Structures are given as C-alpha cells and as structure tokens.
Model the fold of this input.
Amino acid sequence: MGCKLSRALASREQASKEKDLTDPPPPPPLDPRIPLSAKQKFNMVKSWKGISRALEPTGVYMFLELFENHSELIGLFTKFNQLRTRDEQAESLELAEHATIVMNSIDEGIKAMDNVDFFFDLLHQIGASHRKIPGFKKEYFWKIEHPFLEAVRLTLGDRYTDNMDNIYRITIKFLLETVVRGYELAEEKEPNDNVKKAVNSSEANTSKAEKGS
Ligand code: HEM
Done:
C-alpha cells in the first residue's frame, strides 16, 4: 500500500517535471514604464537577435541615412567630419567604428528592457554624455529615428513585417525620449556648465584683485 502510494507520487512528480520541460513559463509581468505589451516585447527581443548579429552594417547604414538627409551633422564628428560623399562615408573605418559603438549601446539598452531602472540609468548616462560635444543640440537625437528604422528594415528584410514596424517605432521613440531626458537631467544639474566655469574664474580673479589692492 505504502509502496503503491510512493509509486503514484513518483509518477506524479515525473509528470510534473515533464510538464516543466514542455510548457514555456508564463511571461513575467511587464514593468508599466515600458510602452510595449508583453507580447510585443517578446517579439521585439526575438527580432532584435537578427540585428544583434549585424550591428556594424546596420549602424553604418543608419549613419549613411542620417548624413544623406542632414549633411551638416557630419561636422560634429571630429574623427570623420571631412567625408563628403556617401561612398567615402561607406568605406570609412572611423565611421564604422563609431556606428558600432552607438549600435552596441542601443543593443545594451534593448537587452536591458527587463531591468527598467538599469535601462533608464544607461540611456540617461548616454544622453548626458552628449552635453560635452561642441555644437550638439538635444533636438539632434530625433534625427536618428528614421535612419534607425530604415537600417533595421534593410537588415531584417522579409522579417520586418508591419507588426514589427509598429513595435520598432514604439521602441526607438521610447529609447530616444530616454536619452533626451538624460541630456535634460544633466542640463538641470549643471546649467550652463561653461558659463559657470567662466563666472567662477572671473570671481576668483576679482577676489585676487581685491586682496591685492
Ligand atoms: C540613440 C541615439 C544615440 C546613441 C545611443 C548614441 C551613443 C553615443 C555614444 C555611446 C557615444 C560615445 C562614443 C565614444 O566614446 O567614442 C556617442 C558620441 C557621439 N555622438 Fe552619439 N548617440 C546617439 C545619437 C547621436 C546623434 C543623433 C548624433 C548627431 C547628430 C550624435 C552625435 C555624437 C557625436 C558627435 C559623438 C562624439 C563622437 C566623437 O567625436 O568621438 N549621437 N554617441
């Protein structure tokens, strides 16, 4: 009798182990700060694998599209601001290197969407880092929205369905809002960085002059 019971229990345990192997776990509840449904985020992460494997060509195409429509922006990039034609840009190692750095940080951001606090920290920091670029304006971030979508479309080909188009639009908008916010938070913390430094040094000069007199 005891033996029968333990056999029954063992077979139930076995059945539940098998069930664990076949049924995918239910998706964890989504952080409400993410503007995607659980299903959309699942599709996004799955689709992004195709981009993850092709970060450099996707990034290069994204920058070619950016400079095609906003040729004045290439002037901000000290390492390749002299490249004029699309062909020169397409062949530039410096441009490819920068494109890869930017795509790597987008990749890190998208993979961090499960940990929203980390996602915000990472992208706020990237946004803030653009404050040190001479001539950069926060409005420029939005200029990469369309080039990003075009580059993802090219890399994914047939896999870029209307449904994925909608999901990528929501995702890049969310990502860009977050980098812009990071830029603004840094601005609030250190308004007019350079002006402040200039004022401080002139105060220092004034007090030196006062001591001297
Ligand atoms: C999602 C959007 C963006 C991300 C994630 C991003 C990311 C980055 C990162 C990680 C760096 C540091 C690279 C390094 O240390 O070498 C950087 C630098 C830079 N970014 Fe962005 N960026 C974005 C959009 C833009 C846009 C739209 C522009 C211009 C219109 C821009 C202009 C620059 C410039 C000029 C630098 C400095 C390059 C240099 O001279 O080293 N970024 N960006």
User: Anything to note?
Assistant: Residues 201-213 have pLDDT under 50 and may be disordered. The two ends are 106 Å apart (CA to CA).
